[in-house]
UniProtKB/TrEMBL annotation:
<keyword id="KW-0460">Magnesium</keyword>
<dbReference type="GO" id="GO:0005886">
    <property type="term" value="C:plasma membrane"/>
</dbReference>
<feature type="compositionally biased region" description="Basic and acidic residues">
    <location>
        <begin position="49"/>
        <end position="60"/>
    </location>
</feature>
<feature type="transmembrane region" description="Helical">
    <location>
        <begin position="803"/>
        <end position="825"/>
    </location>
</feature>
<feature type="transmembrane region" description="Helical">
    <location>
        <begin position="935"/>
        <end position="957"/>
    </location>
</feature>
<keyword id="KW-0633">Potassium transport</keyword>
<keyword id="KW-1133">Transmembrane helix</keyword>
<feature type="transmembrane region" description="Helical">
    <location>
        <begin position="1011"/>
        <end position="1030"/>
    </location>
</feature>
<keyword id="KW-0630">Potassium</keyword>
<keyword id="KW-1003">Cell membrane</keyword>
<dbReference type="InterPro" id="IPR006414">
    <property type="entry name" value="P-type_ATPase_IID"/>
</dbReference>
<dbReference type="InterPro" id="IPR059000">
    <property type="entry name" value="ATPase_P-type_domA"/>
</dbReference>
<dbReference type="Pfam" id="PF13246">
    <property type="entry name" value="Cation_ATPase"/>
</dbReference>
<dbReference type="GO" id="GO:0005524">
    <property type="term" value="F:ATP binding"/>
</dbReference>
<feature type="transmembrane region" description="Helical">
    <location>
        <begin position="978"/>
        <end position="999"/>
    </location>
</feature>
<dbReference type="GO" id="GO:0006813">
    <property type="term" value="P:potassium ion transport"/>
</dbReference>
<feature type="region of interest" description="Disordered">
    <location>
        <begin position="1"/>
        <end position="60"/>
    </location>
</feature>
Amino acid sequence: MEEPSLHGGIKSGKLDDHSGIKPASDEGSNVDDPPPIPRASSSIQLTEKSADESRLETTLESTTKDVDIDYCAHTLARSDVAAHLQTDLERGLTTQETATRQAQYGKNQLETSGGTKWPQILVQQVSNSLTVVLVIAMAISYGTSDFIEGGVITAVILLNVVVGFIQDYRAEQTIASLLAMAAPVSKVVRQGAMTTIKADELVRGDLVQLNVGDIVPADLRLTSTINLATDEAALTGESKPSTKNAEAVLKELDIPAGDRNNIAYSSTVVTRGRGAGIVISTGMHTEIGKIAQLLRKCKESANKDDPWFKRALHKTSGATKSALGLVGTPLQVKLSWFALFLFALAILLAIVVFSVSLWDIDNETLIYGICVAVAVVPESLIAVLTITMAIGSKAMARGNVVVRKMGALEAIGGVTNICSDKTGTLTQGKMLARKAFLPGGRVLEVTNETSPFDPTTGELTCQGSRVSGDTVLYDSELRGLFQTMALCNLSSVFQKAETESNTQPTWTATGEPTEIALQVMAMRADHGKKDVLEREGMTPITEHPFDSSVKRMTTIFETRDEKRLVAFTKGAVEVLLPLIDVPADIRKNILAHANEMASSGLRVLCLCYREFPATDMVSLRDRAFVENQLTFAGLVGLYDPPRIESASAIRQCQQAGITVHMLTGDHLMTATSIAKEIGILGSHVTGSSSGSAIMTAHQFDQLSDDALDDLETLPLVLARCSPNTKLRMLHALHRRGLFCAMTGDGVNDSPALKGADVGVAMGLNGSDVSKEAADMVLTDDNFASIVSAIREGRRLFDNIQKFLLHLLISNISQVILLLIGLAFQDRHGNSVFPLSPIEILWANLITSSPLAIGLGMEQASADVMVRRPHSLKAGVFTKELITDKFIYGTCMGCLCLINYVIVVFGASDGDLGFDCNANYNDSCGLAYRARGTAYSTLTVLLSVMALEAKHLTLGLFNMEPTKPGLKSFFTTLTKNRFLFFGVLVGMLTPLPIIYTPVINQAVFRHHPLSWEWGLVFGSVVCFVALVETWKALKRRKLRKGPALDDPQKTEESSIA
């Protein structure tokens, strides 16, 4: 190796790193060729082997025969891997061999899902039971030549499909990055020459070179490393860069991926040093590819060993359920079953109508049967639900949440457990120097920091006193500590200039996370690198870079007077402690403090320095000489700090009855410390003190499913997680009947995101794989945004209940009116319907839809986040909702019926003419006027009911308890402006329908009203009185105390 330059740093020269391709220098210059290595044969017989390369010689042949090289490469020496792959470590592969291998293994790229498939999205819009019911109703209408009714239903179906398609397609376009995580280009040696190629052209056996900032293009068995480290946070979940060592030969085949320090993984980033390696896996065979394959596997309900007819049955059953919408979120499944029930009920009622006529089915009877069937179906339900979902997704987008699947909107509000990754999700994914220990025993602490890169935030205190730049200047211990932090450091922390888009200056940094954290801490005391060099007049001379074999780094500076040299060293405590020139008892004291800091989840570094006379300039080339008899400057504890909002967000989740679990690839001690800091663990958390609250993945994976189910509490903190561990955790939660959300940003989170009931990915720092696997994406990577999503989901669930109540009341009242109306017969003995089919469709679509949408836009109640998740078993159809809709529907239907009877029999002789269902003739005047009265009563009562449905328990005149009397009523009336104007329109709708000539008689089959309006408004008074009486009875029952296990009653009981 060439001699180091004392004034220009250590020069790049020949690199003798045993065998293998040599990495290029940092400056990009070439290196001298290493001694030639003979081409290895397939029999793996090598003439020269080092000790570590020959340890597995006796078992290598059998191992490589039975196990693929990408599985065992970490247990083999570099030359053995090259021999297995038939690669020349000097010249690489030939062009002909490269073409052969690419034809054999394919391109080095991940298989994508093919982008956004609009036909598939379109099919999803019609694959539900409600749409099937509407399609059948449309077909029957056209079949009976009722083109007006058929056209209206067709318009409804198109509205449902178009709105849902646009919403889902836009969401897919927003997350259209898919699985594009491969490096775009790569430096590779082929036929003895260095060349740059596209990463997807790499094949197994290629020799790849790596430099700082490169994205690793494939899985590599490293052949040479110079201070190499890669960021594997997206793959393993660890925020600390992984130091690599090409010489390492590991003994265990099944060692976790994060601990294979001689392997560089595809899509990870080189953060330090340089290196070279042999490609052992490409494309879907890499570690990231294996995770992508987990996402692509279909969940087959039938076992592959089952007979063909059983597999066919399962496949047919699955396809049928999917077509009818019987798979998906709880709300989707509940509504699909409800639609099937309505379809069956429509058929049953039609049979009832035909039975009344003794199956003498003429045109009049057929129209009446269709009328009853149409009355059963809430035609606008899908349209209202789709529009409400679209409005909800826009509201979430304003709250930094992109919804990829509309079903996740209502599902997120019902989650009972959140399984969250730590790194980059609950924490910032950056290092922060939190605490320092001085030689004299004093302790420095950093508190109230808001950004890991901003030295102007946070407070630096020593024994309770604030530390400033002046304090450090007159304190030798502090000065020695901060000078070592600042000068044994290659990072740069600086402030970005203001821009047009960002008027507030921001801080950024380049370099290793650990060094950035130390530099920021020094800058907080006005002792950053630039400040110290200017103040002390020091000049950098040389450095001994960090090396994984010695675990330390040293920089050397010359003082202004050129009479002294100062070496600043940092490294692992166990490495530097023997090199410190202090008595044994002081060493023990330092070690005790280091262990104490480590036990609190901090990564501990030791800082030292040493002064030399300028005459020792030549001796600086000897690293052993420089890094000896050091002066202890202090200990520094670093960690990946929690996001500022994480603690508050977790507390809100816990208040909402949601349990938060931390599933991380980090170490147990670090994970536990963070969990306690943000409130996942604590005395206020149920199960936090149980023996199973904190576990490692190894402990968790050793338990059988039955053993997991027997645990009193599933782990709140699960450390060193693999993708399979996270999936097992989700399955264990599902077996307990819990509804789970998973948040994460790394590739390693993707299978769990896919398997969770609601997958939530991070948008800024999240991997593309995780975004595709998720149901929704947080665009600001802020865990607190999930609280907004849950709030919006619960608001949406409440509002769905409100407009379901409103829509179903309309159907129940119409069915009651029509069934009893069978008794009203004309001169020929045919039943005359009290409502025509078009009147029913108009009331269900034109009148009810705006009112239902308005209810869907209601604001969240004040205590929406302090009550437990709603019952997933009951779903939206709670006992209270079912009871209310039958009571209110019966009242409404009876009032419409009473008005109809008064007009027909009270004010007239009851002669309903003949053939008045299909067309108008002179005998139909009374039937048409009575029909108009029933329709107007129904429409006005539906408008009033929309106001009553704003709250299931509070009355119309006391929904705003803080405002007395009429003020409460008017506030309730105008608070939701969309609903307010919808009610006004609903009240006025009957006027043009009743009084417009031709249309009223030919289309709607009714006549104008006169004195009958008195009956309509009298019905309003009676209906409001009946509803208010029922709500008062419910409030009285709640005052006596609701059941403690009924989460639906929390809000009402607190109000009552």
